[in-house]
Design brief:
Oligomer: single chain
Number of strands: 4
Distance between the termini: 21 Å
Strand content: 5-15%
Bound molecules: glutathione
Order of helices and strands: EHEHEEHHHHHHHH
Number of helices: 10
Largest sheet: 4 strands, mixed
CATH architecture of the largest domain: Up-down Bundle
Shape: globular
Strand order of the largest sheet: 2-1-3-4
Length: 220
């Protein structure tokens, strides 16, 4: 059985989890015990990778080979025959997933991280804070809290192109879901993870699409 090694709030993990649920296959979720303890995936990947998600499928271990690759999703897509990466939409998808992973994620994760005490275990807090501060500077979490309103406005602005696309189609690029729909879903679920936010009422098509994506199953 396929195993997904993850953190439940990680945008990149939600993408793969939703793809697996969409496919309707049985799979096992393995949550890493602490954000600061990557020993399990370090071991599994032959000391090559410490990020999540990682997929274990029998003897096969799948993880991203680069910063902008989609190796995990492509593996699941091929194995489960989902056709989420049609060749004729490869270019559009490549642009859009970069927008999701860079522009949208950079704001969405900060808004969720403000509430890190709600989802990081007490014995993992120091490691979590240190990890963030080493990357974003001392006091970054407090800073994001003080910028919350502004970050929310920024996210809404960044989501506007998605709202505009969804005003004319059921899914971002087609009348069926492609990889980028799962990608955007992962980023939004991370933003919404703390339970303190909702998608803007001003963006009704995005809200409707999001409701649909929560439980969408592939058509047999
Ligand atoms: N491009 C990768 C990004 C994966 C990633 O950044 N994962 C985060 C968790 S959301 C992580 O584990 N980062 C390494 C770290 O925290 O040390 C993907 O799509 O899977």
């Amino acid at each position: 059985m396929i195993e997904l090694i993850q953190f439940p709030w990680s945008p990149f993990c939600v993408v793969q989890r939703r793809i697996l649920e969409f496919a309707g296959v049985r799979f096992k979720i393995v949550n890493l015990p602490r954000t600061g303890d990557r020993s399990q995936i370090w071991r599994l990947t032959g000391e090559k990778y410490y990020a999540v998600p990682v997929i274990k499928d029998g003897a096969k271990i799948i993880f991203e080979s680069g910063d902008d690759t989609q190796d995990v999703a492509r593996y699941l897509d091929a194995k489960l025959r989902l056709d989420l990466f049609p060749v004729e939409r490869e270019g559009d998808q490549a642009i859009l997933w970069r927008y999701c992973e860079h522009e949208l994620e950079a704001v969405g994760f900060k808004l969720n991280d403000i509430y890190f005490r709600d989802f990081v275990q007490p014995d993992d807090l120091v490691s979590f804070v240190r990890h963030k501060e080493r990357k974003f500077g001392r006091g970054c979490l407090e800073q994001w809290r003080s910028q919350q309103k502004n970050l929310l406005r920024q996210l809404e602005q960044l989501l506007l192109p998605c709202e505009q696309m969804l005003a004319h189609r059921s899914f971002l690029l087609a009348d069926r879901p492609l990889f980028v729909d799962f990608e955007l879903f992962g980023i939004l679920e991370n933003f919404l993870y703390s339970g303190h936010y909702a998608l803007a009422k001003k963006q009704p098509h995005l809200r409707q699409w999001h409701r649909k994506m929560i439980s969408l199953k592939r058509t047999p």
